[in-house]
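Deliverable D5.2: sample structural annotation.
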Amino acid sequence: MQPYLLPYIGYWQLIDAVDTFVIYDDVNFIKGGYINRNSILQNETYQLITLEIIGSSSNKRINEISIGNNANKLLKTLKQNYSKAPFFKDTFPLLEEILGDKEKDLSRFIGLSLGKIAKYLNINTKFLYSSDIKNDKTFKAQDRLIEMSKILNATGYINSIGGIELYDKAVFSQNDINLSFLKTHKISYKQFNNEFVSNLSIIDILMFNNKEQIKEMLTMNELI
C-alpha cells in the first residue's frame, strides 16, 4: 500500500491482517490524495488536515518528496478539536512523538508513524519499503506486486477492497500466491454528542476509544 498520513481504520485492518506490510513508496506521488493529508472531526463534521510538503509533483516518486514545517500547527489544530475527547491524554503524546519526528523524507516519516501507532496498539506486523526491495522497477501494477511477493516468499497477498477491479486472482494463483481483498464492516462509535462522522483518520478512533475497543475494530472485516 502507498503510505498515507495517519490513515483510516481499513488501512490498519490491512496492517493487522498481514505478517509483512510493504509501504509502496517508489511510485509516483498523487496530488490531492491522502498521502500527506487526512480528515479529522471538527464542529460535528469532517475537516482536512494537511502535512506540508516541499517540491511535490506527479512526476516525482513518493520517496523523492520532503516534508515541510507545519507539524506544530497540526498539533495545535488537533489539540483544539480533541482536547475534551475521553482518550486525549493517552493519544496526544503519541501524536506529539509522531509529528515531532525529525525525518524529512515523506515516505519514511509516514512509515515511522505507522510503526509508532502499531507499537501503541500492540500490532506486531513487520514494515518494509518497496524501494528497499530489490525488484524490477519497470514492472507495472500486479506484475510488480507478484514479483515482490515472490521475493518475500509470500504465499498470500491481501489488498484493500479498492483493488478488486485492478488485480486478477487467477494470475496470482498461477504464481502460487493467494490473492484476497479486505472489506471493512460498518464501524461506529460515540464522538462527543454529535451524529457519527465516518471514515476519519485513525486519530479520531484513538481519541474516542480505548485499546481494547480498537483491537476489536481491527477484526471487523472480511477477506473476499
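Annotation notes: The first helix runs from residue 9 to 17. Residues 9-223 form one domain.
The annotation will be released with the project's public dataset once the embargo ends.
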